[in-house]
Amino acid sequence: MQPRAHVTLEDVARAADVSLATASRALNGMRVTPQLRDRVLAAAEKLAYTPNAHARALAGASHRTVGVICHDVTDPYFAAVAGGVMRVAGDNDLLVMLASTFRDPEREIAYVSMLRAERAPAILLIGSGFEDARWERALEAELKPYLDGGGRVAVVSRHRSLKVDSVLPENRAGAGAMARALLDLGHRRFAVLSGPRALTTVADRLGGFRDELAKAGVALDPADIVEGPFTRDGGYGAMSELLARGSAATCVFALTDVMAIGACAALREHGLSVPNDISVAGFDDIPIVRDLTPALTTVALPLQRLGEKAMELALTENNGRRRRLLRMGGEVVLRGSTAKVGS
Amino acid sequence: MQPRAHVTLEDVARAADVSLATASRALNGMRVTPQLRDRVLAAAEKLAYTPNAHARALAGASHRTVGVICHDVTDPYFAAVAGGVMRVAGDNDLLVMLASTFRDPEREIAYVSMLRAERAPAILLIGSGFEDARWERALEAELKPYLDGGGRVAVVSRHRSLKVDSVLPENRAGAGAMARALLDLGHRRFAVLSGPRALTTVADRLGGFRDELAKAGVALDPADIVEGPFTRDGGYGAMSELLARGSAATCVFALTDVMAIGACAALREHGLSVPNDISVAGFDDIPIVRDLTPALTTVALPLQRLGEKAMELALTENNGRRRRLLRMGGEVVLRGSTAKVGS
DNA sequence: GCGCTTTCAGTAAGCGCTTTCAGGGTGCTA
DNA sequence: TAGCACCCTGAAAGCGCTTACTGAAAGCGC
Predict the structure, then answer these.
(1) Is B197 on the interface with A (CB under 8 A)?
(2) At what angle do helices B257-269 and B76-91 cross, to 10 degrees?
(3) What Cα–Cα distance (Å) separates residue A173 from each residue in A169, A226, A341, B38?
(4) Which of A240, A303, B212, B254 has its CA 20 to 30 A from that of A111?
(5) What are phi and psi of A325, to 5 degrees?
(6) What gap in Å lies between CA B81 and CA B102, rounded to an integer?
(7) Nearest CA of chain A to the CA of B136: how many Å?
(8) SS3 A115
(9) Strand C contact with A55 (CB < 7 A)
(10) What is the pTM of this model?
(11) Which tens digit of pLDDT belongs to each residue from A275-294?
């Protein structure tokens, strides 16, 4: 038997000796005589028929696959948030397709465009945006028609530009709380491992940390702020740089846990002990940091719930047409990687 | 201006005062008088036109989004492999959509069906299959028509059932090599933290390990084999169980790194030191294990390359119609989590 | 200057599906 | 037995796009 390229509904209808309309109805569970329905179902089964989603979507039926766009699925932070999205999606019988942009604005727009073209019912954008006017405009241009066309959009952790429903981790407050906690441990000289300045998340966390220190009369020496990519290796590199500079900091605050992990590796290689020689703190509370030795002190964000909430926002009708903002607080969790000064 | 639900090609054509065909051609870069082309492009821009991918696909154009299906993007193993897939896809100007099944066979089939329906040019399945005849048949039924229709499929790490191009980590040999390495350290009494027996990967790794021990005259006590989910918590639970049983093993082999991480956590909580009190080894070499303290001894699989190769297989025409198998070896890497017996 | 080829825009035929609209059986009532 | 209401099925009209195919205008050689 020479298999046809694509089995179509017409083939099924012919095999079952019914009309197209009846075949379609039978397959979609609408009212059809049991006898005919069985014939259609049997034919479909035998021919391994799969409806062409394009034709179906084109003909008006909506499909159930939402799109999620993040920077990098390889990063535990995004993986955790995506996990939350998927949980809620699963509960609602939605399939989730996840895309990684690798922080390439062009790719991000390409994905939005693709999802828009596919008429996905919802698009979620996860992760800090860029402070880049050109990109903002391009994304806006892509998103607006999608929204006008009835598409639903929700974002996690990017506020500046987009006027869409958002879930916002309280980066500024969280970093401030961390500053206070570290001050309470007696630290007075800090270093910060920062991510790219263009990210709004960086601005918020760094700002919150610095401001809270300032309130206590502690200044952050610009030489003690090292910038690197938001990755494990970025943290490793930034910490190495800091060590090379001979910083006198007693405590290092990495703007993300992933960077903190890299920093700890660098310290270990330099023969320094955490937290005896130097304290290390991170931000996010990705799952793995609990299993490190020492476990990482961090600002715990409810990562999974961030994703869940975003999905819920996207699923939920917003009649009041006002943009909804959901702020989600972070909580400082002191673990083994930080110690009292002099202890 | 009241925005229309969807701007269609017809709107653009009308705005530019040309025919549908001309508008289509202009947008697709086919030969059209520059003057007309500009008019069309300007109109499209002004109306924020995005072609409806469904209509386009239905009308015959193929699109450039490949689908990747894995068990759980939250798991660093899959994240790493997916990272490799994306690298190659990016080089080929393909977009990648990633889906997680959470080990639910039904969901897996739903995704394949969806991707098939969307006429994705390629589908990659990442991760161990199930030894479940019913599922095998269902998946086969879904995949065969896709392949017949010109779709390309490649899988990573599942061999039993599917007759498609495959990248196969050498689980059996790797586990055997690990057995030898651990024997060389002087261990004679082992415990294994296993995953669900239904996974082919489990059968291979466990079998390889056991067989190699047998060659050295060392038997694996069934009471020293504990089964749990392939997750961090699964490893934690399995290790706790083992401890409760009062096993006399001097070395624990976890069938995946993720489980090993959970196991270490359990040991730590029980006040046992790795590797002084007990050695721990894993399998996979996910990126994080290098940063643990102690770093984890494991069988290093080239995770990223697994993904790269799979994508390459899918991209590459296979005229010889024979199924291609790519075996990729693992290498034992001894790190701090294992020690010589009695040292 | 005439008939040819060449270019390029327009017309129209689908791609595979859903869904409205009509029509033809039934079963019921009078 | 005739009349009415229902329920199902089938015919057909799109959904928005691509792409033959058609036809008109323009360019060429003689």
Answers:
(1) no
(2) 150
(3) 9, 21, 24, 51
(4) A303
(5) -120, 130
(6) 16
(7) 15
(8) helix
(9) yes
(10) 0.86
(11) 999 999 999 999 999 999 99
